[in-house]
Amino acid sequence: MKPESKWRVLLGAAFLMATSAVGPGFLTQTTVFTQALGASFGFVILISILIDMGVQLNIWRVIAVSEKRAQDIANLVLPGLGTFISVLIVLGGLAFNIGNVAGAGLGLQVLLGFSPELGAIVSAGLAIGIFLVKEVGKAMDLFAQLLGLLMILLILYVVFTAHPPVEVALEKTFAPDKLDLMAIITLVGGTVGGYITFAGGHRLLDAGLKGTSALPQIKTSAISGIAVASVIRILLFLASLGVVTQGLPIEAANPPASVFAQAAGNFGYKLFGVVMFAAAITSVIGSAYTSVSFIKSFHASIPRHESKIIIAFIVVSTLIFITIGKPITLLIVAGALNGFILPVTLSTILIAAYRRNIVGTYRHPVWLTIFGVLVVLVMAGMSLHVFWSQLQSLFKG
Asked: Which segments cross the bilayer (predicted)?
C-alpha cells in the first residue's frame, strides 16, 4: 500500500470511529448531563476519555495482530461467544441507527423545513448512495473526515458565542462537586461501547492494514479517533455550560437545539441543523457498516453481498423510525446498554491477547493489559451498581 493511501485509510478509520460515536445520542447526552451536573460534567468527560483510551488501544491492537474480526476472536476464546456478542452488537447497532436516521431527519427539518420522516428518508438515500459507489471504503473515509471537521468548526463557533466559564470548567474537571455513575456509563457506552469500539479496527482490517508491523500506525489511528470524538464532546460541553451558566432555558424536547439557539440565535439554530445532520448521517454509515461486519463470518455469501446487506440495514432502521418514531429514549437506553456490553467484549479481547492460537508470538504490553482489566472492573462495577439501584427503585415504586 502506498504511503498516501495508508495514511488516508488510517485517518479514515479514526474519523469513522469518531463520527460513529458522535451521533444524535452523543449530542443529546452531552447537553442533558451538562444541564444536570454543570461544570462537574468535565470530570465525567475526563474519566470517559481515559477509559476510551484503554478500550481502543487494547481492541485495535489485538484485531490487528490476530488479523481477525472481533466475533471470530471471541469464538476462538469460547465457542459461541462471538455469535452471542454479534447478536448483542447488531441489535444495539440497529437501536442506535433508528435514532441516527431520526436525527438526520431532524437536522434536515431545521435546515430545509422537511418533516422528520421525509428528512430521514432523504438522509437514508444519501447514506445508501455511499454504499453504491464502486470504491466504498474511500468514499466512506472521505465523507467521515469532511463532516467530522465541519462539526468541529461549527461547534467551536457556538462555544465562542456561548461564553462558557472555561476556568470553572477546568477546575471542576479535576475537583467535581458531584458525580453521576450513570453519566459515565452512558458516555463510555456511547463513545466506545457496542459496535463503535470496533468500527475503526474492522475498517483497518478490511483495508489490509494488519499485523505487528502496522501497530505503530494503528496506535496513532486509534488515538486520533478518540481525540476527534473527545474534542467534539468538550466543545459541546463548553457550549452547553455557557448557556446553563447564564440561566437560559433548555427545552427538554430538544436540548442540543436549545443550546445552539440560545448561544447564537436563529443562525445558531440553523447551525444545529447542520451539526445534527452531519453527526447523524455519519453515524448511520458507521453503524450500518460495523454492525454488518459482525455477521460477515456467519456465511460465505455475506461478504459478497456486503453492500446490499448494509443498505438493507439502513432501510430497516428508517422504516422502524417512520412507523414507530420518537427515538430519544431509545438513544439514551442504547448508550447505557453498550456500557453494559463493554466489559464482556473487552475482557474477551484481553483473554485473546494471551492465546497463541489467536495472536501467535505477539506479546501484549503489560501496562495495556492492566489498564484494560481496570476498565473491565470499573465498568462492570458501575454497571452493576446502577442496575442494582434501578432495581431497588423499581421495587420501592
From this structure: 36-55, 76-98, 110-133, 142-161, 181-201, 222-247, 267-289, 309-325, 331-354, 366-388
